[in-house]
Amino acid sequence: MLKEKTIWKTKIAQTLNEMLRTANIDVEISTDKIAAEIPPNAEMGDLGFPMFPFAKMFKKAPPAIAASVAEILSQGTLHGESSCLVFAVGPYVNIKLDRSETSKQILEDVLAESESCCVSKFLKGKRIMVEFSSPNTNKPLHLGHLRNDVLGESISRILAACGADVQKVCIINDRGIHICKSMLAYIEKFSGKTPQSENKKSDRFVGDCYVEFDKMSKQEEAENASVEKNAKERAQDLLLKWEAGDADVTALWKTMNDWTVNGIKETYKRTGVSFDKFYFESKTYLRGKEEVQKGLEKNIFYKETDGSVWADLSADNLDKKALLRKDGTSLYITQDFGTAILRHDDWPFDRLVYVVGNEQRYHFSVLFKLLERLGFVWAKDLYHLAYGMVNLPNGRMKSREGTVVDADDLIDELRDMALEEIKQKEREEEVGNAACAAEKIALGALHYYLLQITPDKDMLFNPEESLSFNGNTGPYLQYMGARICSILRQEKAKQFDYKSADLALLTSDAEWELIKTISTWQEVLNDAADKMNPSIITAWLYDLSKKFSTFYHICPILNADDGGITCARLALCKAVLAALKNALHLVCIPFLEVM
Predict the structure, then answer these.
(1) Is the pLDDT of residue 118 over 70?
(2) What is the value of pTM for the model shown?
């Protein structure tokens, strides 16, 4: 509907300006001052334009202005004849579009660009870097990562669909005390064992070491063990040895990091997540320490008596922030300095988006302000896309430690549930590879459920609810796509040439509502990119699917009385399928031709 809104905005602006000239009022109204809305019900037309903003300049009530504009436009004396109906409803100028003409135009555009109808020029020429996932190399990905990953991947696809040059990056947090805790547990409890010897996915094996450290530490405290140094102190010693370049510690660190990263990359591949470049904290933190030193020399930072380095941001209502510990080891903020600088050096961006949980709002406020103080002009282009916590309503899929929902375990269980549904409905033969179909249904269920909520809100993930084939779910959308594919595969459908369809025949209410929804796609896409909110697209997908379902049940397609109607409705099905398929890709939902 973007094209229709633009046309009528122009007409209304021209009409208002003519009225101003007639009244000898020296003001010019530009098109961008005209707001376009969708009336609350179909009887009020298809588009509505409020006249409130112009009451002061005309010195008239908005309903009077609306009545004058509608009268001029409906007479066609100023702008030429129009088959659309123009009328005033209170303070609004409302337009009832010509269904035949508009349906034909909208569907011709969609069908002509069926392979690229997602592309918009909204962000053309912009270079946008998106950082997401950011795993630690001491454990596998978990449920929280799944929301982060799909949000980052979806946002990247949406921005690219709007014409932006997007680079997806991931920072691997492969150094620090948490890594050394896993290493210590390996040395003391797992020495000589490997993921292969234990028949475990490699990142899970390292995660088990991390869990073991926690057990070791708690056991020492409970037993009041008389050790020279407790587990936490021994792990800190490993960190100091690593930063000093100790050969044995470095070798173990590399081995265990490789185990974790390789396992995590398997999960990325499984979920359809990819990156253009990986950064490693172990290679960026030194650059951050250099910047801290420069800040000390410029009196931007200061050193405490114990040797730790701090920044005082009280003038910016942000309090004080530690940048280096007293032993000289770095903190997350130090690493983030170095990583941000290296990224801009590697790929100068117009914007860098950090997809990180909302509990880190303060951290990023500090990071952006300190980079600005250090003189990096691009600091103003940094943006924190904060998202809320995600939890399960019960603990039945929690891993053994009782606190983490492993990503692979969750997907496995969703896949098994979907496979059981396929078997119960005796659809194994129809779907082909049932396990593969179940995996795609599981990912569709998971990704849709995680993205349908506005990013900044906390959420509960309900596995059973997410897999429903009815209602607001990923499988429901996948089913709609499969249903359309089934229609288009039938022999009678193959006899029609969609290109010769008379699209002007599509004028019934159900057809019109479906066509209008398709026509809003570009606005929806641009809005999702502008707000970095994939839930705008998931809501549109659900609305499109519901309206297709209504159309399917009300309007005979292959059994229509008239062959011309059948051909036009098949063309409409093809247009819906193209829109559905492209939009599903942007929210990381696998498309299925058969379900």
Answers:
(1) no
(2) 0.91
